[in-house]
């Protein structure tokens, strides 16, 4: 049921969460199959602590009798209110529009743009935002508009307002902070709930905040980590999407931690972005459900 | 939907595989919920290459209207033949009976018996079989009958017949080869299809056969592995249940590979045995589906 | 230069750390080779931040001209004071004496005793200490004296004094806290500096203190860890010897975290204990150098 | 002793291997320190099976009394012949010149060029060679000459001769096959012994040859791997520099194996290339010693 990458048939993707109750899977799959949809993917999860049911289902629309632009309405009317479902509906023929925010460090940016250019992902990258000009040359190499918003204490509110205006005008769906070394504040975060993906260069919750590699070196840990998470208004505390680690030893210096961390950061960020693009991440109470 | 360990309510576990076709999940979950079963766990998989559907569903029997001893018959009559399902039905109040085969190396045996004694697993270990007496003291420590069947070229058929007789008399459900250094032949294998779990001390298919650590050292690999698989009549070629690796370096000798491999072997074997006991492994055409 | 496990020749092991300065390796290796020692192992490290040199060297004594009981004195006189070296000298024909402290959870204890009984390690385990009687049956199985010291707020000082007396009388060299659920206080810690090895069931410094699996579940991390460290008077803050992690997902409950954590804990603890027994751990300013 | 990345002082790097014998470390470190060299890095290894000693030592030349262009001659005369040493001498102020060979798949190429452009490595990439034009656009983005040599059965010898001529004229020191889908034959291999680094998309020796992901899928393994090795005339059988794996499951298709493998391939290749550039790989009898 894994969607095949080069599948060109149009599919609908339905993400649902609601209070757990018997028979929900049967109801949803019945809705799809009775109306002529061919299910390609189904995964579900029950959080037995919160008693919440989560589901992701994807089906081919070719012979589906409900018109594409009416599916959401029908599902809402027939099931969502009845079962108190929170749901989102996507179609695979729409490319989500992703903005990348960067500062001076290039490895995550290169990695994202290489995947984009090689068409690994079903995504559009209409623009890159930065508070510095250092990485403009990278944007130029890949032919992507690069917008510089230098941020100081005094102009932060104004600059963020300008950024938000640009994001809205460019119809940006989600934002990736690719080692963006500026704290983003409320207005942007609130405009993109669970839609801003950050990479933090530590195994959160250890070493939140600034200079995690220095802190890891100081503490003498034997593994370093990276964490990709959705940004919330509390720093480095949003729902975690993906984490990984790499082994280090007493031979490592802060400099070699930074070097080893680079590969980790770009891979962990890419995995999180991929899951987000594939509509496989659901959030609930500061935790994520990440389907395979 | 993960079954909670210390859940004492009786549950039924249904494992199904059949040709993929629309609506099977709906049919099966409907069968359970309509008849009063509360689903605790559901996972499913479609092998899109073979077009085979796999499913594991577990539900509480407390208010289930079909008597426990009739569930299999009803499901067979109503659905299995109609959908050409191959199915198995288990109940969590039965402890599967596991025989352990060993030779001279103790680490896997100790690990299995420690888990058994600590009641980590829902399993019974009525006996240990060996072709040597070396590990009898371990069996004695844990109070488990130890049966010695010394095997030579000449007596192999006779000894295996005697082993099989013992296994049958002791109502053994499945066998774990915990570094048993004797090739088991057809009669036992055929009596326990997908019910004999072996641990091979390499990352199969690399280094099948004898002395894999020596071969790994010779080749100069940078990782060594262990593989747990069901035993088939073709040596080291049965369906793989679990694999893992550990990093090595030029500093390792064959002796240190053997030492590092020990931890790997016992953990990989234990993971496979646990999945088997939890009825989470399905096999089809020499491959496994291992549910979480 | 890796010492071969079944090497029965007597060797000396010298651990050194001192301010870094040119030529130390030459001086030490010269001391050994000129006097007829055959070097089996040499590893060294320079902490360029603290400017400290670390070294571990092991050599065969067969043709070494300095008598075994004079080596320390000679090395001290000729080199240690000159180069301001802190050094320790061990011989492989002495088995360090290890005490195991446990409470109610058995997996680490079983793992340690299985290795001990199988003679994986060059160690003696003369006794087990516990604040509960629950695991006495494990000690009995392996024939090791089990001493119970029930600890309450009121009797803690007295009991620790009694424990310390027992440890001294039994000539215990180092202590392993194998999921010992009592905080050990100053007198014992000060009597065994860098000689008490604890296993903490989290990826420190994340989730220090009580109930780390609950905290990890609450935070929604995607990996859980275990950390083995030397005990200092600051809780969960001593020098880290070894860490590792295992991947988890949204499907895991606190119960399955605890189950998955068990395997992690016992392996991470065993790796640390092994390094300690092999005299491959040096500490300096709350960090460790762990040689291969 | 780890060379600090942004260290701008000139250093010499000496790689040595020779029959193991007492006192070699003392001799070599003495040679350096007596003549005014400050040792920044020293690592050594003894292969106790082959009885071969390996060493890598790096020192600052600032106050070294032997002129840079005479060091090799002096070391050869004074020590190398006496101790039957095979040695190589490098200086960190020379950037090794690396050619990249590619075909149609871009992820490894992008990754190498991003590191190059970000100056992660002390390397020069004067040219890219390909048997196809597909990736010319990548070379153009990064401003690196791209040379196309279409290879057929009939013209292979001629084309390889032309490639070799280009490599020689461009003073190429080593070659990276970044998913180059053509078997390179004897003349080029013999001209670059232990200087051609390939990435093979399997955990060698498993799944050597063509289509390893298909073979891995067919066998039902639970981990897939990637292997970086020096190219020898025997296909996929040269000395292994680095390997790593990623966990897969029954949910993966050949397509998702290919996707997951991409990240693995580029990281494993980059680690091997980095070690090669840092002069930390020594080879002997089809195995590598890879220093930290």
Q: Mind explaining what this structure looks like?
A:
Four copies of one chain form a homotetramer. With 292 residues, chain A is α/β, with parallel strands linked by helices. Chain A has helices at residues 24-34, 71-80, 107-117, 136-142, 156-169, 186-191, 212-219, 254-277, and strands spanning 11-19, 38-47, 52-60, 86-91, 97-102, 124-130, 146-148, 174-177, 196-200, 223-230, 240-247, 281-284, 287-290. In chain A, helix 3 links the parallel strand 5 (97-102) and strand 6 (124-130). The longest helix of chain A is centred in the C-terminal third of the chain and has 24 residues, at 254-277. Residues 1-6 of chain A have low confidence and may be disordered.
Number of helices of chain A: 8
Beta fraction of chain A: 25-35%
Spatial strand order of the main sheet of chain A = 7-6-5-8-9-10-11
Instruction: Compute the CA-based radius of gyration of chain A.
Output: 21 Å
Topology-level CATH name of the largest domain in chain A = Rossmann fold
Any low-confidence stretches of chain A, pLDDT <50, length ≥5? 1-6
If interface size is counted as residues with C-beta under 8 Å from the partner's C-beta, which chains form the largest one? A-C, 32 and 32 residues
Query: Could you tell me the number of beta strands of chain A?
Result: 13
Assembly state (oligomeric): homotetramer
Q: Residue-averaged pLDDT of chain A, rounded?
A: 94
Fraction in helix of chain A = 25-40%
| CATH level 1 name of the largest domain in chain A | Alpha Beta
Order of helices and strands of chain A: EHEEHEEHEHEHEHEHEEHEE
Terminal residue distance of chain A: 11 Å
- CATH homologous superfamily identity of the largest domain in chain A: Formyl transferase, N-terminal domain
Q: How many individual domains of chain A?
A: 2
Structural class of chain A: alpha/beta
Per the principal axes of the C-alpha atoms, what is the gross shape of chain A?
A: globular
CATH-derived architecture of the largest domain in chain A: 3-Layer(aba) Sandwich
């Amino acid at each position: 049921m894994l969607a095949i990458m080069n599948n060109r048939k149009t599919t609908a993707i339905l993400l649902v969460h609601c209070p757990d109750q018997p028979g929900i899977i049967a109801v949803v799959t019945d809705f799809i199959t009775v109306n002529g949809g061919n299910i390609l993917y189904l995964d579900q999860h029950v959080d037995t602590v919160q008693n919440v049911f989560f589901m992701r289902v994807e089906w081919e629309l070719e012979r589906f009798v409900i018109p594409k632009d009416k599916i959401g309405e029908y599902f809402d009317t027939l099931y969502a209110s009845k079962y108190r479902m929170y749901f989102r509906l996507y179609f695979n023929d729409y490319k989500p529009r992703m903005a990348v925010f960067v500062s001076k460090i290039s490895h995550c940016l290169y990695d994202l743009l290489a995947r984009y250019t090689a068409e690994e992902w079903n995504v559009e990258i209409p623009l890159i935002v930065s508070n510095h000009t250092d990485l403009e040359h990278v944007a130029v190499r890949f032919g992507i508009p690069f917008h510089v918003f230098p941020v100081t204490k005094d102009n932060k509110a104004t600059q963020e307002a300008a950024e938000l205006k640009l994001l809205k005008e460019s119809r940006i769906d989600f934002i990736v902070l690719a080692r963006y070394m500026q704290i983003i504040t409320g207005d942007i975060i609130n405009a993109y709930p669970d839609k801003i993906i950050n990479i933090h260069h530590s195994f959160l919750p250890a070493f939140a905040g600034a200079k995690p590699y220095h802190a890891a070196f100081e503490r003498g840990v034997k593994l370093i980590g990276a964490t990709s998470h959705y940004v919330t208004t509390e720093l480095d505390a949003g729902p975690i999407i993906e984490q990984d680690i790499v082994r280090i030893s007493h031979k490592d210096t802060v400099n070699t931690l930074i070097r080893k961390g680079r590969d980790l950061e770009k891979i962990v960020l890419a995995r999180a972005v991929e899951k987000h693009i594939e509509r496989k991440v659901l959030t609930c109470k500061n935790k994520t459900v990440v389907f395979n």
